[in-house]
Amino acid sequence: xxxxxxxxxxxxxxxASLEQLxxxxxxxxxxxxxxxxxxxxxxxxxxxxxxxxxxxxxxxITLQGTLSPQGVHLHLSLSDPGCQVWGGHLExxxxxxxxxxxxxxxxxxxxxxxxxxxxxxVRVQVALADGCAWSRRTERLLQGLGIQYELIAPSSGSLPxxxxxxxxxxxxxxxxALQSQGALQDLxxx
Length: 190
Fold this sequence. Notes:
By secondary structure, the chain is an alpha+beta fold. It is built from three helices and ten strands. It has helices spanning 14-25, 133-144, 172-180, and strands at residues 2-9, 29-44, 52-68, 71-79, 85-90, 95-106, 124-127, 150-151, 161-164, 167-170. Helix 2 (133-144) links the parallel strand 7 and strand 8 (150-151). The protein is globular and about 50 Å long.
């Protein structure tokens, strides 16, 4: 593992900057720490159809999650001038106010990838539950990465349920772990 400091100037998009870093490093990793502020924050809250946008002098409290050349999955918490705390899934549009300093850890090993099946075949099947936050996160992750998937009827057990190339991998945590390892790259389209 190697740690890489990243300084962001005023006007930088927090999410886009981390996506660019992971792409340029061609490595998977995670955020170790962050100190800084934002002029606006854009994040998705569970159960909401549209992202939340907060403007003002916003202090970053935490930023945690994973990044890889295939994409990022990050959660942000911040406080406004009244010390109200906000947070959720980091979206594009979170803009640095004065500056932000991050420390990002990159993993040393190349991430394994899933071997491709027949070209153009839908390789991912998911069983989802209406109104389930984990099901919405599963769809958001797959759609954000440009991975085609087929909705199927659930078998017994908890939801979501996810299959890749006919193999049950588990639920959302297992899918997110594969994404953080860069193992979903071969499933992407476009």
